[in-house]
Design a protein that fits this description.
Elements: H1 12-29, H2 34-42, H3 50-71, E1 87-91, H4 100-104, E2 109-113, H5 114-121, E3 125-127, E4 133-135, H6 141-148, H7 162-171
Antiparallel strand pairs: 1-2, 3-4
Length: about 180
């Protein structure tokens, strides 16, 4: 039951009531996951022509962006900038390499301001599993200084981000010690 950490049931009737309440909570009261929303939005969409495939991609990208906005409180995960025009819904694992689920998984994304997004997308920066900034030797000292202002940078990632971040680090040549 909502707000309770546990409940003992002593009859099948009580178990049935508890399961019915749980089913109602999961199916009616909780918002759908990004993947459930994607499946619902694209279920009846044919995917045979290029135009139809593009419509599915736009639908998925819109869902991904909405869920990232919610997850990161409409702010850059690094800087806190909230100007929507400057924010990018950045996939950690690239769209082309992702399954349908991964394409809309909120843990496969960071909401980043345009400059941070460009650096991340090009593999000039990455983040450890704990969210600590990792900087590629390819990034100039000046660019590093502009990005960090000389301060340590940490992003509040969760355990769900870890597999995607590990793959990002490997793809862009960050050391295994950076995990």
């Amino acid at each position: 039951m909502p707000g309770r950490s546990g409940r003992t049931v002593s009859t099948l009737a009580e178990l049935g009531d508890a399961l019915a309440s749980l089913f109602r909570l999961v199916t009616k009261e909780l918002p759908p996951s990004a993947y459930q929303e994607f499946l619902g939005a694209t279920y009846a969409m044919p995917a045979t022509t290029e135009a139809e495939k593009k419509a599915i991609v736009r639908t998925a990208q819109g869902i991904f962006r909405r869920h990232l906005d919610r997850y990161w409180n409409q702010a850059c995960a690094v800087t806190g900038v909230q100007d929507r025009e400057l924010l990018r819904a950045s996939h950690i694992k690239p769209w082309a390499a992702s399954s349908d689920y991964e394409r809309v998984d909120v843990h496969n994304g960071l909401l980043l301001s345009a400059l941070w997004d460009a650096a991340f997308d090009q593999g000039l920066i990455s983040f450890s599993d704990e969210g600590n900034l990792l900087v590629s030797p390819k990034l100039s000292e000046r660019a590093t200084a502009v990005l960090t202002d000389g301060r340590p940078v940490t992003v509040a990632v969760s355990i769900g981000h870890a597999p995607y971040l590990r793959e990002h680090r490997l793809r862009h040549g960050f050391s295994a010690l950076d995990s």
